[in-house]
Structure to design on (171 residues):
């Protein structure tokens, strides 16, 4: 199901949802979708943040994609409540400056993290080194972050050295 430019929706048993070009305030209602296992939110060019409560009741969410949020500067710390999340994909969030330290700590089931074209992302959170289930990290077109993740010498290397599959490119 795809919902486009809809300010209010509630379908509690919905397993998968794509939300395209909606305002950030309407994303609050995703917290009512407790059966959701896959959420793809994209194409919001105005929001600088996501509602803190949007992830609070999504205990079954396994896949989250956040893309094309041109002005998004931060992600909510409520990411920490996504204990079942296995795959997190963040791309084309040009203004994203950091991943929330408190939000990352709770992602204990996370196996794959993909970060692409988040040019303002400067560093990875310390909590990443404690995510023992994380097996794949892909960082592409994030020049500052790629430099910090250089094997053995990068400032963030100690945070990712335990991850078996690393794919890091600044292009």
């Amino acid at each position: 199901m795809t919902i486009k430019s809809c300010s209010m929706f509630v379908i509690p048993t919905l397993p998968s949802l794509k939300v395209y070009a909606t305002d950030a305030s309407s994303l609050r209602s995703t917290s009512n979708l407790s059966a959701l296992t896959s959420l793809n939110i994209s194409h919001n060019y105005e929001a600088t943040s996501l509602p803190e409560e949007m992830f609070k009741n999504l205990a079954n969410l396994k896949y989250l994609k956040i893309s094309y949020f041109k002005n998004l500067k931060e992600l909510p710390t409520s990411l920490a409540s996504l204990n079942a999340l296995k795959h997190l994909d963040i791309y084309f969030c040009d203004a994203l400056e950091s991943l929330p330290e408190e939000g990352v700590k709770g992602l204990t089931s996370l196996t794959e993290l993909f970060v692409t074209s988040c040019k303002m992302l400067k560093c990875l959170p310390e909590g990443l080194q404690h995510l023992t289930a994380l097996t794949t990290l892909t960082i592409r077109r994030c020049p500052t972050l790629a430099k910090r993740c250089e094997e053995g010498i990068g400032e963030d290397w100690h945070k990712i050295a335990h991850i078996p599959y690393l794919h890091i490119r600044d292009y």
Observations:
- The beta strands are 2-4, 16-20, 38-42, 63-67, 87-91, 112-116, 136-140, 165-169.
- Residues 2-150 form a domain with the Leucine-rich repeat, LRR (right-handed beta-alpha superhelix) fold (CATH 3.80.10.10).
- The radius of gyration is 15 Å.
